[in-house]
Known about the structure:
Layout lengths: L8 H6 L3 H15 L8 H4 L5 E2 H8 L13 H17 L3 E3 L16 E4 L6
Amino acid sequence: MDSHAPFDDRFARSVQTPEEAEIVLHAFIREGQQADSQHHVREKSKGYDLYLPWLMEVVEYVIPLEDHEPLGLLELQQLYLDVAWRMVMKGVLRPGPKMVNAATDTNIYGLAFTLMQGVEI
């Protein structure tokens, strides 16, 4: 899967490496920017560009690709959390809402991210 491919929930459930997980996160963010998102990313992401609880809900019950041995859900969750933070360190994402005065859930620390200003995915 290339870095500009559309979001694929089966691939998202089957990732094994940080590189694959980053491809998925890019695709998930791009899908959330579309008004007609198949996975309702825009509606379910609570105003963030990347809302990891929704990604995990989308992939939790998906059948992995046939030629992949899937990670356990806890391992997969940790991989996505680590890669999201890696994207923060690269200057692609920042933790938190898009606006200072945006309503936020106090239980989302480290789970919800916004694209840095000027970054396109």
